[in-house]
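Sanity check record (used in CI):
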Amino acid sequence: MLSAKYVSVFGGDSIKKAFKKAHTEYLNFLEMNADFSGGQEEIAEYEYLKNNPKKAIKAYETALAFDDYNNNARLNLAYLYYQQNDIKRAARLYDKVIKQEPDNSYPYYMLGLLFNELGKDKASLNYLKQASEREPFNFRAYYNYALKL
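Expected output for Tetratricopeptide repeat protein:
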């Protein structure tokens, strides 16, 4: 049986060398695109996967400074704040997405969950209902809405 270190790919490089090369190229890509909203979003995702939430938050905030309508970055940032137990910031970010994209069901759903955790049943029910109305096939929203009834 061959060990993985003897398997060659990419012009004879070992898998370990190929991975290191790909990792270096990816870091160069991130650095090269750091002055764009999408590049900062990529950096944030990379830092999040490396379990660096503070760096991820900083990169998402920078992404939003470049493009205030990057609601994908805003939703990810809100979720990071939610994970960090910074409920007020998370709620403000979800509210901003709702103002910019009122038909997007996801921020309503997340606010429904957030208010449920805070014990604010009426607000939770309202947001889960709105999420269900905006996306009829969002079974998680329906399920959580039904639990609140």
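The helical segments are 15-32, 37-49, 53-66, 71-83, 87-100, 105-117, 121-134, 139-148. If this sentence no longer matches the regenerated tokens, the check is flagged for review.
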